[in-house]
Design goal:
Mean pLDDT: 96
CATH topology: Catalytic domain of cyclic nucleotide phosphodiesterase 4b2b
CATH class: Mainly Alpha
CATH architecture: Orthogonal Bundle
Strand content: under 5%
Distance between the termini: 27 Å
Order of helices and strands: HHHHHHHHHEEH
Shape: globular
Structural class: mainly alpha
Length: 285
Amino acid sequence: MFPQVDTRVPGEVEEQVFAIYRKLFPKGHRGFVPQAFEWAESCFNGKIEGYQAIDARYHDFEHTLQGTLCLARLLAGRQAAQAVPVVDEQSFQLALLAILFHDTGYLKTTEDGEGTGAKYTPIHVGRSATFAKIFLSGKGYRDADIVAVQNMINCTGVATDLESIPFQSDLERSLGFALGTADLLGQMAARDYVDKLPVLYLEFAEAARFNSGKPVRFNFQSAEELMRNTPLFWENYVLPKINCEFEKLYRFLNDPYPDGDNQYIHRIEKNMIRLRDKLGQPARG
């Protein structure tokens, strides 16, 4: 079983990710994980010139930390299963940067005084990729590494055609799929996921208001409608996505691998039961 981690506390997530990193790469760069978390916290806390602190209430820094912790655990399980191609230290670093920056597209510039970052929901993936490029270029990262980070970020787009992403290697592709998996599972397995769905609805509603006349994928009339559709989202979108398009990489979270319990899937299923009960919907047979 994974240790309990309070994802509201960045330091707890960082500690767990650092422990995984050190186990995978005993001789690796000790300063990388603290540096990556410091960069991400600076972005979300309004310490980057030209940008405000995050004001999207669902896609906040905790949301990013949930996905980050899940990704690190998945990659640790992948290595323990001796999957190939093997994740080397540099590739792990790039994947960690990608998950930490994957929702920076919700950040508003300092001159943007209208609404919250939720208005960027339809285009936040592209904005995140652009932000990552600007930020990492300023830190001296090579073009190929930045492209890798961008390709991984693009795997989190709900409507993204994964076949259209120009992955530079099979490993980069696998890491992108792992990131997409972790982004979905990390948030949906959270203990307060059901309670935060009304907040997610407010983000979707704001996106619809600011993008009137443009296609918005999730356009619900009420928080209750979103909540009633969430079990279907899990069954008809997420499960097919992680099983088919993302090639069942979530199995590397099974303990023990390959047939042990999957704590993330179990928690999500419990959340769906709780949600159906809250709404008075019949349990699935």
